[in-house]
Specification:
By secondary structure, this protein is an alpha/beta fold. The protein contains 13 helices and twelve strands. It has a seven-stranded parallel beta sheet with strand order 6-7-8-9-10-11-12. A three-stranded antiparallel beta sheet has the order 1-4-5. Strands 2-3 form a two-stranded antiparallel sheet.
């Protein structure tokens, strides 16, 4: 079996006016879809964030991939590293995530190749990753503060004919009551049993009030998470954390950097989680030395693929870290890859994030 075609399709998907530390989501989120086809007419799909640099890199990767055996993942990965260079994660500058082109390129292509291998062998991808250790992948409701609006061409407008979650997702959520209503709707329509709030958009005490309002509405049996996107100072993170001890399942990136995370973590009795200070294998030694977090959020898009995510899980087990899973705006291809990875990862100890309902 040989690869004969590779197609890269950049797309824009509707995104409501969601708020975070960086400001306001655009009306559309960008994704790139990769389709790889073999001489046996078996095709596989992959999906990654669709910024221009990634799309151009994927286009350039076509000449590396065509002609390869889709089962030879190591050979293909090495060829991609040879083509794009193995620049260090430290070269990403001030960006909190690993933005090396090779990370996204390898992830998109590897997922498509696993899709091909699964179809060719008649086995689900989770079996190719070592086999399922659970029957279901658990996901968490992912709440945002938001203005009224449906996004896309409607922008801040709404569709009066929408029903169910399509209607609920259009409503504003800019205070504790709005956040609770959003959480109730999301849990009602999707069956989520844990809840995460993306913070960093309003004054910290107001966001703590929203968490406490959800705790009152849902009770202590519903795990709650707060993620201010590393925008708070250490003092603020500690002060807000004191209000939320005994309430949060985990506190995700309240401050920026491993050193600051370690300082805030030492002052609080709350598990700390990160998708911003420990985001590549090169960050692991600092994490272990400083004790910057209790939980790492994996993400096959940003860690370099499904196999890299399994490797991260083993490292987390070795160093006593819990493991959760990060999400950004995505479609079903990414969701299915996340689900297969989740059911094949023994020590995935928390429900995964997902933007999919948005």
């Amino acid at each position: 079996m040989k690869i004969t075609e590779m197609h890269v399709t950049p797309i824009a998907i509707t995104d409501p006016p969601l708020l975070n530390a960086a400001g306001l989501h655009a009306p559309y989120a960008l994704r790139a879809i990769v389709e790889i086809v073999t001489d046996d007419n078996v095709y596989g799909l992959g999906e990654v964030p669709g910024n221009l640099d990634t799309v151009q890199a994927l286009e350039a990767a076509r000449e590396v991939v065509i002609g390869q055996d889709p089962f030879q993942l190591n050979t293909i990965q090495q060829a991609l590293f040879d083509r794009f260079g193995n620049e260090g994660a430290h070269e990403r500058g001030a960006m909190p995530w690993d933005h090396r082109r090779i990370v996204h390129v390898n992830s998109a292509i590897e997922v498509a190749l696993f899709d091909i291998m699964g179809k060719a062998t008649g086995r689900p991808v989770c079996d190719l990753l070592g086999g399922r250790v659970r029957e279901r992948a658990e996901f968490s409701a992912y709440l945002f503060y938001k203005y009224e609006g449906a996004g896309g061409t409607l922008e801040f407008g709404t569709d009066p004919n929408a029903t169910g979650w399509a209607a609920a997702r259009q409503k504003a959520a800019v205070d504790p009551d709005g956040v609770v209503a959003e959480a109730q709707a999301m849990c009602q329509y999707f069956g989520f049993k844990s809840i995460k709030l993306k913070g960093g958009a309003f004054p910290p005490d107001e966001e703590a009030d929203a968490i406490l309002a959800m705790y009152e509405a849902f009770g202590p049996g519903t795990p709650l998470r707060l993620d201010p996107n590393a925008i708070w100072s250490v003092d603020t993170a500690i002060r807000i954390g004191k209000r939320l001890e005994g309430v949060l399942e985990y506190y995700e990136d309240p401050v920026r950097g491993q050193e600051n995370m370690a300082k805030a973590r030492a002052a609080l009795d709350i598990p700390f989680a990160t998708n911003m200070c420990t985001t590549s294998f090169e960050d692991i030694p600092g994490s272990v030395r400083l004790g910057s977090e209790d939980i790492i959020l994996s993400d096959h898009h940003f860690w370099g693929g499904l196999r890299a995510s399994i490797e991260l899980a083993r490292i987390c087990k070795t160093f006593g870290r819990g493991l959760s899973m990060h999400s950004n705006s995505h479609l079903g291809i990414s969701l299915m890859a996340m689900a297969h990875l989740a059911v094949a990862t023994p020590n995935l100890t928390y429900a995964c994030d997902t933007h999919y309902p948005w």
